[in-house]
């Protein structure tokens, strides 16, 4: 009986072992952990940055620069024009050196004279033509052929309109003193050296005004401000002042004044003077230079700053300033 039970237990153990071997043991599985879910945060939609582009413009094609058409005027400064007076009809003409027909500048004869026989007689009605600095006006001296005193008239020709008009009378024959009748101060004024009634004058074209000087003017500064008179005085036209720059008391028998010249900037005037003597060649000539710039506006009477150079009989120099 015990043997039977032993065998039965053994069989049961074997069966249990076989059952365990046949049924796999469940291996422990890791408990799934809740993984952190990545929450996608909504990002703002990127707005594309606009790169500024140049605004297209309608580029116009380059146009040619318009060249102004020049109005024909008297061009006496191109060295290609001749100005002449025709005594047969009393008109002024110009003609190009390259040829062509003459161009008449005046609309009416000089002063009404038409003298066909003038050329044959060898007489000149108009003399010493001079062109204004701007080239518009032509000033001419008209001699009175029947007068022995050298009297005449100064006429102006407007080259743009052709009009001819009288400016002033003068005294002094062009044949004796060529070029000493008048001179242009600028494009708007003439200096007339010798008037029939005496003295000189400044003729202004803008208002047709004649400014008379009691003294004879020998020269004018390049800027038209100062006038040097024959008796050694300097006229300041802007201030209407007359200054004595030559000492007439130093010459009991009178003073002789000769050549004079202005510096280009109108700052200095040079002239030569001497006392009257019986022997012209023995005179003691003096070159005087007036420093106008250093002298104007100084309270020193009527004297200017002078640099005196003794030219004869020996060179000496001294300076007299206020």
Walk me through what this model shows.
The chain is built from three helices and 20 strands. The protein is mainly β and 322 residues long. The chain has a domain of 101 residues. The strands form five sheets. A five-stranded antiparallel beta sheet has the order 16-17-18-19-20. Strand 6 and strand 7 form a beta hairpin. The C terminus is likely disordered.
What's the mean pLDDT score?
66
* Number of DSSP helical runs: 3
Oligomerization category of the chains in this entry: single chain
The H-and-E topology, N to C, reads as HEEEHEEEEEEEEEEEEEEEHEE
Shape: elongated
Strand element count = 20
Strand percentage: 25-35%
Instruction: Compute the CA-based radius of gyration.
Output: 55 Å
Sheet with most strands: 5 strands, antiparallel
In order across it, which strands form the biggest sheet? 16-17-18-19-20
Amount of helix: under 10%
Low-confidence parts:
34-42, 65-77, 110-125, 173-178, 297-304, 310-315, 317-322
- Class by helix and strand content? mainly beta
Distance between the termini: 175 Å
């Amino acid at each position: 009986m015990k043997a039977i039970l032993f065998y039965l237990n053994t069989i049961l153990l074997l069966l249990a072992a076989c059952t365990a071997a046949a049924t796999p043991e469940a291996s422990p599985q890791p408990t799934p952990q809740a993984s952190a879910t990545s929450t996608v945060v909504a990002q703002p939609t990127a707005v594309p940055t606009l790169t500024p582009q140049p605004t297209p413009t309608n580029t116009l094609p380059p146009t040619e620069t318009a060249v102004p058409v020049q109005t024909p005027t008297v061009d006496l400064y191109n060295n290609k024009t001749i100005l002449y007076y025709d005594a047969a009809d009393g008109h002024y003409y110009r003609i190009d050196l390259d040829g062509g027909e003459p161009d008449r500048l005046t609309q009416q004869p000089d002063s009404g004279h038409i003298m066909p026989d003038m050329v044959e007689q060898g007489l000149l009605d108009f003399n010493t033509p001079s062109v204004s600095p701007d080239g518009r006006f032509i000033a001419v001296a008209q001699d009175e052929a029947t007068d022995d005193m050298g009297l005449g008239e100064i006429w102006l020709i407007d080259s743009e309109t052709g009009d001819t008009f009288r400016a002033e009378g003068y005294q002094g024959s062009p044949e004796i003193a060529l070029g000493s009748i008048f001179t242009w101060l600028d494009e708007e004024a003439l200096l007339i050296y010798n008037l029939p009634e005496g003295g000189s004058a400044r003729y202004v074209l803008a208002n047709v005004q004649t400014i008379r000087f009691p003294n004879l003017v020998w020269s004018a500064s390049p800027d038209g401000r100062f006038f040097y008179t024959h008796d050694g005085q300097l006229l300041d036209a802007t201030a209407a002042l007359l200054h004595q720059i030559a000492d007439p008391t130093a010459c009991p028998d009178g003073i002789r004044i000769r050549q004079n010249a202005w510096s280009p900037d109108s700052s200095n005037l040079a002239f030569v003077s001497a006392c009257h003597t019986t022997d012209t060649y023995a005179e003691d000539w003096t070159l005087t230079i007036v420093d106008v710039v250093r002298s104007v506006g100084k309270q020193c009477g009527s004297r200017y700053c002078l640099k005196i150079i003794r030219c004869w009989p020996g060179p000496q120099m001294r300076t007299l300033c206020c």
